[in-house]
Amino acid sequence: MPPKLDLNDPAVSELVALFKSIGLDQKKAEDVAGSAKTSQSLRELIESNGLPDKGLDAKQGTLLSGFAVQAPKLGPEERTYAVNKIVDGSLKSADQVSGRLSGLFVTVYNATDAPVVAATKYLEAHKAPIDDKEFNAACGVGTIPWPAMLSHR
After folding, report:
1. How many domains does the chain have?
2. Which residues constitute the domain of residue 42?
3. According to the model, what pLDDT value does residue 25 have?
4. Average pLDDT, stretch 132-146?
5. End residue of a domain, out of 73, 89, 107
6. Is 133 part of any domain?
7. Same-domain status, 12 and 63
8. pLDDT digit string (tens) for 96-135?
9. CA 27 – CA 5 distance, rounded (Å)
10. Comparing 52 with 112, which gets the higher pLDDT?
11. Spatial CB neighbours of 111, under 8 Å, sequence gap ≥ 6
């Protein structure tokens, strides 16, 4: 069992505060701070993209912490691109960010089936400069899952 996180340690307290600045709640911030690899990656994402000043919500913070696990696989430009897509609300789900996809998504605008890949997988295969239109289509930006679409009718 890993050692218990010492919240009285100033370095740990600083990390937890940093993670809370991107919308994570206390528990999630502590959980992330307890993982050395994830906390280092998330800290780098936050600091290199000026995220504490962006007014992010809990969902965006959670997406960023999930992305931090896979971010080291990407180059700096690709990481920044993905972070910007999370911050501007283009990437809204963990499926779009990290690849836990369960099937096809349906485009809201034209209702045609389109396969969706996760942003991290796309960015591993497509280096900067990223074609925004191609990325959006491949990663399901502007789409909702089929069951959700049915509930809107």
Report:
1. 2
2. 7-73
3. 96
4. 82
5. 73
6. yes
7. yes
8. 887 654 444 333 332 333 344 589 999 999 999 999 999 9
9. 12
10. 52
11. 149
Let me know if residue 83 belongs to a domain: yes
Query: 142 near 148, Cβ under 8 Å?
Result: no
Q: What is the pTM of this model?
A: 0.82
> Does 93 lie in the same domain as 61?
no
Distance between CA atoms of residues 58 and 143, nearest Å: 21
Q: Say yes or no: 17 and 64 in one domain.
A: yes
85 and 56 fall within a common domain: no
Q: Are 42 and 95 found together in one domain?
A: no
DSSP output for the chain: -PPPP-TTSHHHHHHHHHHHTTT--HHHHHHHHT-HHHHHHHHHHHHHTTGGGS---HHHHHHHHHHHHHGGGS-HHHHHHHHHHHHTTS--SHHHHH----S-EEETTT--EE----HHHHHHHSPSSP-HHHHHHHHTTTEEEHHHHHHT-
* Among the listed residues 51, 120, 113, the one whose alpha carbon sits nearest the alpha carbon of residue 88: 51
